[in-house]
């Protein structure tokens, strides 16, 4: 059903969408290409929530040439009045003849209505061209809309022998500067960064974006849009002067014990939001934590923590994507494992699909997805 030219134009629309991937959140990143005959007459992408959608930019560029043209969009054109008017209406008004759509919008306010509006206006639609690629652009937005939970990426750094820290907890630095720069970009893609209090106490990590390491054209804007930092800290041990608290951007600390009133007040006075969660045996309810993040419109969570919390999240099936940086070092048998998951038989092992392995400086970046089949 999809021709070579469909792939060509949709690939371009996906490339355009990607330009908004650091700035569009909590909106999805979306790209649009308008083609008249075999000429591209309009291009656009969604840059920021509150600003025009991809189609509006592309239609403005196409002007009168949109009449009778084919529009390629990476996401179903919207049908609702949100922060901006409906794109389906704009496409109809501009006299577009056909709309090729990579995927339906999972937002229940749209979910098929945009396609219906176009069809009812006599515009031909085709849905599903390069759908897998389009879905990969917005895994967090899709997960939040469909499940009420964010997409969780767990980032870990390990030696070739699968170790992440020495027995003392010392872990800086396993990987090289290029991998750390890649982690900065993973942070910039995320609405929230989640860590455990252990990492804060041991490394005093700030978990912020830093311009020099980010190495992106939008760096100045991204520094203003720091991801929310989240610390899981059952007994409120985070010092009020920790860099995660005093650094730029919002901070949320989840605890599970009522007692520490003075510490709660000190953290609040330092600017952190402190929230009490349900707990079991003193352990924070991780599902509840993720659901609270969704109320803050968080699509993507980057889990940057030690082997204990990462292992618990993994075992509870709360990790959607695993990103492991593997460094060309051996840390020895006294060092800590990648994930604390005390399995005893092979029947417990978790299987993964590794979808990408690439060199980043002297390290390797491995992307894997839990295999739930
Ligand atoms: C489109 N084209 O480029 C984007 C769409 O608050 P608003 O008005 O910005 O609407 C946000 C919703 O619109 C978002 O949740 C998603 O359903 C859709 N995003 N739709 O037609 C775009 N970014
Ligand atoms: Zn729209």
Automatic annotation (TrEMBL):
The coenzyme or cofactor needed here is: Zn(2+)
Q: Which residues form the CMP/dCMP-type deaminase domain?
A: 5-125
What's the Enzyme Commission number for this chain? Answer: 3.5.4.26, 1.1.1.193
Q: Which SUPFAM superfamilies match?
A: Cytidine deaminase-like, Dihydrofolate reductase-like
Q: Which reaction does it catalyse?
A: 2,5-diamino-6-hydroxy-4-(5-phosphoribosylamino)-pyrimidine + H2O + H(+) = 5-amino-6-(5-phospho-D-ribosylamino)uracil + NH4(+); 5-amino-6-(5-phospho-D-ribitylamino)uracil + NADP(+) = 5-amino-6-(5-phospho-D-ribosylamino)uracil + NADPH + H(+)
Name the keywords, alphabetized.
Hydrolase, Metal-binding, Multifunctional enzyme, NADP, Oxidoreductase, Riboflavin biosynthesis, Zinc
Q: Please indicate which superkingdom the organism of origin belongs to.
A: Bacteria
- Cofactor note as given: Binds 1 zinc ion.
- Presence of keyword DNA-binding: no
Q: Which Pfam families match?
A: dCMP_cyt_deam_1, RibD_C
Q: In which pathway does it act?
A: Cofactor biosynthesis; riboflavin biosynthesis; 5-amino-6-(D-ribitylamino)uracil from GTP: step 3/4; Cofactor biosynthesis; riboflavin biosynthesis; 5-amino-6-(D-ribitylamino)uracil from GTP: step 2/4
Q: Which GO terms describe its molecular function?
A: 5-amino-6-(5-phosphoribosylamino)uracil reductase activity; diaminohydroxyphosphoribosylaminopyrimidine deaminase activity
State the similarity comment: In the N-terminal section; belongs to the cytidine and deoxycytidylate deaminase family. In the C-terminal section; belongs to the HTP reductase family.
Its job: Converts 2,5-diamino-6-(ribosylamino)-4(3h)-pyrimidinone 5'-phosphate into 5-amino-6-(ribosylamino)-2,4(1h,3h)-pyrimidinedione 5'-phosphate.
- Its recorded name reads Riboflavin biosynthesis protein RibD
- Its source organism is Endozoicomonas euniceicola
Q: What is the lineage of its organism?
A: Bacteria, Pseudomonadati, Pseudomonadota, Gammaproteobacteria, Oceanospirillales
